[in-house]
Amino acid sequence: MPRNLAESDIKAFRNRLCTMAEKLFAERGPQAVTMRELARELGVSAMTPYRYFHDKEEILAAVRAAAFDRFAAALEVAATVKGSSVVRANAVGRAYVDFAFRESDAYKLMFDINQPDAARFPDLARAGRRA
């Protein structure tokens, strides 16, 4: 009988799964991000990821939403720089480029994968609008 997990346990495993998905995507491309491969990399049964996410698309949407949120946060901080609109625009532009280089794997995930079903992934749609 499976044990009941605390919310913190669920969140921690979901985060581990998303981190691994981003790593696999970066190292081997989107075809490498499978439920079975994620389970193997995390040392869990092949069915374990399904306890936390419906499918691969849901995992990628979660990873992409988190990346868009980090990207948006960097741009929002840059937009608060004191100075003229030109100074702020330059700061935002630098933040954009800095993010693209600093988090190149996340940047690729954000813009190289198309998940058109916004109704299925409302958090991804929200994060994309924010960015």
Mean pLDDT: 92
User: Low-confidence segments, ≥5 residues, pLDDT <50?
Assistant: none
**Number of DSSP strands?**
0
The chain-level structural class is mainly alpha
- Give the total of domains: 1
How many separate helices? Answer: 6
Gyration radius, to the nearest Å?
17 Å
State the distance separating the first and last CA atoms. 43 Å
- The CATH topology label is Tetracycline Repressor, domain 2
Biggest sheet architecture? none
The level 1 CATH classification is Mainly Alpha
Order of secondary-structure elements: HHHHHH
CATH superfamily: Tetracycline Repressor, domain 2
Oligomer: single chain
The CATH architecture name reads: Orthogonal Bundle
Instruction: Estimate the helix proportion, in percent.
Output: 55-70%
Strand content: under 5%
Quick recap:
It is built from six helices and no strands.
Characterization of this structure:
The longest helix is centred in the middle third of the chain and has 23 residues. The mean pLDDT is 92. This protein has a single domain, classed as Tetracycline Repressor, domain 2 (Orthogonal Bundle). By secondary structure, the protein is mainly α.
Question: Mind sketching the topology for me?
Answer:
Layout: H1 7-28, H2 35-42, H3 56-78, H4 85-102, H5 104-112, H6 122-130
Helix pairs in contact: 1-2, 1-3, 1-5, 3-4, 3-5, 3-6, 4-5
Summarize this structure as a short list of keywords or feature phrases:
131 residues; mainly alpha; Tetracycline Repressor, domain 2; 6 helices; elongated
